[in-house]
Amino acid sequence: MPHPRRQATGPRLAPPVAAPPQKPQRSTTIEQLFADEESPLLGFAHRFVRRREVAEELVQEAFLRTHKHWPQIENPRAWIYRATRNLCLTWIRDHARETEMDPEQNDAAPDPDAPRPDRATERIEAVGALRSLLAELPEADRELVRLKYTEDLRYKQIADRTGLSVSNVGYKLHHLLKNLATDMQSAGFDGAS
To answer: Domain spans of the chain?
Structure first.
């Protein structure tokens, strides 16, 4: 029975069927990715391995892998940062025993207050994982994190720069950090290191 306020005007039509979602088009080429990201990636890799030549080799390998998998990559920037991070962590694990030692210190007892190498590696891995997660965030979210933690701005200053309300800045940052913490825990980083 039709609703008393409505008049039947003919047969009901099914709602239009939406076209299947289109895969977002990549707006960058591998050449553009190289031009934009080579220097930042070298710095990123260097912070892991602390050797310029090794960082250059690992970034080169990351670009070769990116080129090989280019058709399947949806987010090239995040993909190459993750590939570089993984290559760096592999290199660190494979070369963990390489240390410069002073021959006079070979017989010295280890300093109990010195940071343990396994803790340092855990910290490097955690920083790399966090950077990878940040690289995967939408640009607007990365910008909020950058303004707060790199430029050390207050919520009001961030709101002025972004056009968001102060409460929206706080809300977004709270949830971004909560989600990043959850993702880090899921990746095996408990925050204690």
So the answer is: 28-96+118-136, 139-193
